[in-house]
Specification:
4 domains; two-stranded antiparallel sheet; Exocyst complex component Sec5-domain-containing protein
């Protein structure tokens, strides 16, 4: 059989049986041919074919052949039997059962082998995956590592890991392609791309958070960190440009909102002042008095005005300081940052990003540089315009604006509660911005001076008349303040006094000047410096005008501070010294408003320009008006009836005392008019002698301007006032003496032509001198400085009245002549210390009149001589008897007075 196998293998019959079963006759024929060829060959060839070189013998081959023949016969018999029954076509040639068996075997084998094969496949894949993970473990851990770095805030590690992961990914993406590695590379790249996608999701989320933080970062924060991170990670938009534009937009929005809130707060404060209890003029004058006395106590701000007004000043001052300093600092910081990017200094420390991707963002284009400079200038203009608007607007404008803002916010709330589309929201925002910034900054600043001119024209209309003295009793006092005038200034508390106004406005101007000086030092452009100068000039003029309005209102109610009590020196009342102190405080405050010395010089650029001549001229005019108004009120009180009428608020009060603390009398009682007139004359004399001149000198020193013309005008007016007041006071006194003398000379029944020898001074002379003593006592107790003037004037009037009375007597007898001469001489000798050349002339005229009317026909010289000697003795006796009554008229007593 082995030999047969050898033969079969030699002839290519490696698997004869399947072929044999397929076509037995063909196989048999081929086998016979090959076997015949074998036996017909030579012995050597047979041996070679038979043994295959191994030396097998022929007997073995014969034996095998016999076995083959036997097997062949058996197989042929079996084949014929199978052909008859089993190998039929309708039975698929006998394979149906076999196929069924094979299918069943396959099913059973699949049930057994499929899990094994699946596990093997899964294992192979797992091995491949583990191999891939092990090889690229860094990339697989990268998303988690980046998330952890984000949570820790470790920006450096995040950028480092991201850059390294990007490099590895690029390395895998650029691996060389080959047939052997094709499937592996495709699978590896697919996995790496998926992992890198997760990395990008994490990094993009981180970028969004950095963009958000950058948009909320102020110039004084670490904005470089966020810009550097974005540049290192790589972004399409330029973070430098985006941040600068976001900063500008945020600053604009914040400025609009802040100044709108400031305006709304101002309206609330003004309403608090308006809603406060009605205050009478004397109470407000009392607070002015307190402000004067507390001017050296800078810490006690509550003493400078009414509590509601002080509260408004303090709040407004604090808010303005906070707002202006904040935005001044933000603008300065913005420009400092922008300058660093414009000249490239800041970019030198910024990264260029992966593969230099961010290098394009490190240089600004020409258009971008121009836009940044324009933004810086615009920020300054918006700041200046809103500051100027705050001081330029009137009370009505401020109220309308506050109502508009309130409605806009209400609309925003209403629209926010509804489902509005982005287009609708954009439209609403544009409408609101248009309503708030309808005027450009330059237009608003240009309108400011026009408003000031209107206010000045209104003040000229309300200017008091030049005529100061009225002989008629004064009517009700003026109103506490003209609300119409105070409405011209939204920032000015109604009825605020000038001391508090100048004090708080000077603080506000110092703050604004300091901020403006700092902003002017920025190298933006020359235009923004002009805008700041215009803003400061506008605000200064408005503040000075507001202070002048308060100044005039104070002057109108200055008379309410007069208590009509002589001071310890008895020269005058406290009013002259008080007026000097008050005017000095106001002038000092105005000087600070005009020159703003408290503004810090933070740059070499001059922002606060010298005041215009119109501004100083206006202050000079208001200075003169304040003197006129104060004197006008004082004079009206001096000549008023003995009961001062209540002010228009209808509340009563004493000086500096709230009306709720006094009885509800119909009015405030004044001292007698004679006393007031004397005190007022003394006050005017004191003011004319030193107070006004001192104020003029102070004004000239503070504002570097001479007041010669005004000094002459005020001097003439005060001289006229003095003469009118003195005439008013002396008119009644003169009338009394006229009545006494004329009654004594002409109506007492004395017959001067028949009068005998005199025995005493006439009663009318004693009565007149005693009345003069009363006047002397009254004046000396109130205004000693007026004693000489008053007594001299009355003496002149007395002598002149005596002269006029004697001239009406046709004839004097000798006794009548002696009596008249004794009367005149007694007055002359008693009043020697008050005599003047004019009075001496009147005496001589009296003597001459008496002599001219005396009948001398019956007079003898010796009798006349003897009578004159007796008259001298009589005069001496009368002087001794009246020494005490008329002691006040002696020279030494006059010196003491």
């Amino acid at each position: 059989m082995a030999e047969l196998d050898t033969v079969f293998e030699y002839y290519g019959l490696r698997d004869p049986f399947p072929t044999f079963w397929a076509d037995s006759s063909v196989q048999e024929h081929q086998f016979a041919l090959r076997l015949s060829d074998y036996f017909n060959s030579s012995d050597d060839a047979k041996t070679d074919k038979r043994t295959g070189g191994n030396g097998r013998d022929a007997r073995a081959l014969q034996r095998d052949f016999d076995m083959f023949v036997t097997m062949k016969s058996t197989l042929d018999t079996a084949y014929r039997e199978m052909k008859k029954d089993f190998l039929q076509e309708f039975k698929d040639w006998g394979v149906v059962v076999i196929e069924q068996l094979i299918d069943e075997a396959n099913i059973k084998a699949a049930r057994i082998m499929k899990p094994i094969m699946d596990n093997k496949t899964r294992g192979d894949r797992l091995k491949a995956t583990l191999s891939l993970i092990e090889k690229n473990r860094y990339l697989f851990d990268l998303p988690a590592a980046l998330s952890e770095s984000i949570n820790r805030g470790d920006h450096d590690s995040l950028v480092r890991d991201y850059r390294r992961g990007m490099a590895l990914t690029e390395e895998i993406r650029t691996l060389p392609h080959s047939a052997e590695l094709s499937d592996f590379l495709v699978q590896q790249r697919r996995v790496i791309e998926r992992i890198w996608g997760e990395v990008e999701v994490v990094v993009e989320g981180y970028k969004r958070s950095i963009w958000k933080q950058l948009s909320q970062t102020r110039p004084d924060d670490n904005y470089i960190l966020y810009i550097s991170i974005l540049l290192e990670l790589g972004v399409e938009d330029n973070p430098i440009w985006v941040w600068l534009q976001t900063l500008v937009d945020n600053s604009k929005r914040q400025m609009e909102e802040a100044f709108d809130d400031l305006n709304s707060s101002l309206q609330i404060l003004r309403k608090d002042v308006f809603n406060a209890s009605p205050t009478s003029m004397d109470v407000m004058a009392g607070y002015v008095l307190k402000a004067i006395k507390s001017r050296k106590v800078d810490g006690d701000k509550n003493m400078r005005d009414l509590p509601e007004i002080v509260r408004m000043w303090v709040t407004m001052n604090e808010v303005i300081e906070e707002v202006t300093k904040y935005f001044g600092k933000q603008i300065a910081l913005f420009w400092e940052c922008a300058s660093g990017f414009l000249d490239g200094r800041t970019q030198s420390i910024l990264p260029m990003g992966p593969n230099g991707q961010s290098k394009v963002h490190l240089k600004l284009s020409g258009e971008e540089e121009a836009k940044i400079r324009s933004d810086g200038r615009e920020l300054v203009e918006i700041y200046a315009s809103r500051v100027a608007d705050f001081f330029v607007q009137s009370g009505a404008d401020s109220e309308v604006k506050a109502a508009t803002i309130k409605r806009a916010k209400s609309m925003d709330s209403e629209y926010d509660s509804q489902a509005t589309t982005p287009q609708e929201e954009q439209k609403i925002m544009s409408m609101r911005n248009a309503s708030v910034t309808s005027l450009s900054a330059s237009a608003r600043l240009a309108n400011s001076l026009k408003t000031d001119r209107i206010a000045e024209a209104q003040r000229q209309i309300d200017k008091p008349p030049v005529t100061l003295v009225s002989q008629q009793p004064s009517a009700a006092p003026p109103a506490p303040g003209s609300e119409r005038n105070f409405e011209l200034y939204a920032f000015l508390p109604p009825n605020a006094n000038a001391i508090g106004t100048t004090f708080y406005l000077s603080q506000i101007l110092n703050t604004l000047g300091s901020v403006a000086s700092e902003l002017a030092g920025l190298s933006i452009s020359s235009r923004h410096i002009d805008v700041l100068r215009t803003m400061m000039s506008t605000v200064r003029e408005r503040c000075v005008s507001a202070a002048c309005l308060s100044w005039q209102q104070d002057a109108k109610r200055f008379n309410m501070m007069e208590d009509w009590r002589p001071t310890s020196t008895r020269k005058c009342t406290m009013i002259p010294a008080l007026f000097l102190e008050y005017q000095s405080v106001v002038l000092d405050g105005l000087q600070r408003l005009v020159f703003i010395p408290g503004a810090e010089k933070k740059s070499k650029v001059v922002v606060i320009l010298p005041p215009s001549s119109n501004l100083v001229s206006n202050i000079k005019t208001q200075f003169a008006n304040s003197i006129f108004l104060a004197l006008n009120g004082l004079v009206k009180d001096a000549v008023a009836s003995d009961r001062r009428m209540n002010d228009i608020n209808g509340s009563t009060g004493q000086l500096g005392v709230p009306s709720s603390m006094v009885d509800n009398d119909p009015g405030t009682l004044l001292p007698p008019i004679e006393l007031r007139l004397v005190l007022m004359i003394c006050n005017i004399a004191e003011m004319n002698a030193s107070i006004v001149n001192t104020l003029f000198e102070r004004f000239s020193t503070l504002f570097s301007i001479q007041l010669t013309d005004n000094s002459n005008i005020i001097g003439d007016a005060m001289k006229q006032l003095d003469e009118q007041l003195f005439s008013t006071y002396m008119k009644k006194k003169r009338g009394i003496f006229t009545t006494i003398i004329r009654a004594g000379v002409l109506k007492s029944g004395i017959r001067w032509s028949e009068l005998g020898k005199p025995t005493d001074v006439s009663p009318y002379i004693c009565q007149a001198l005693l009345q003069l003593v009363l006047v002397h006592m009254q004046v000396a107790s109130v205004g000693p400085m007026l004693v000489t003037r008053v007594i001299t004037d009355l003496l002149h009037h007395i002598v002149n009245t005596i002269l006029e009375s004697f001239r009406q007597i046709d004839k004097f007898s000798l006794g009548g002549m002696l009596q008249a001469t004794i009367d005149v001489e007694f007055v002359n000798q008693k009043m020697t210390s008050y005599s003047t050349p004019e009075i001496e002339n009147l005496y001589q005229a009296c003597y001459a009149t008496i002599q001219d009317a005396t009948d001398r026909s019956r007079m003898e010289v010796d009798v006349m001589t003897r009578q004159l000697e007796e008259m001298k003795k009589l005069l001496l006796k009368c002087h001794k008897q009246s020494r005490l009554e008329f002691l006040c008229f002696k020279e030494e007593m006059r010196t003491k007075v």
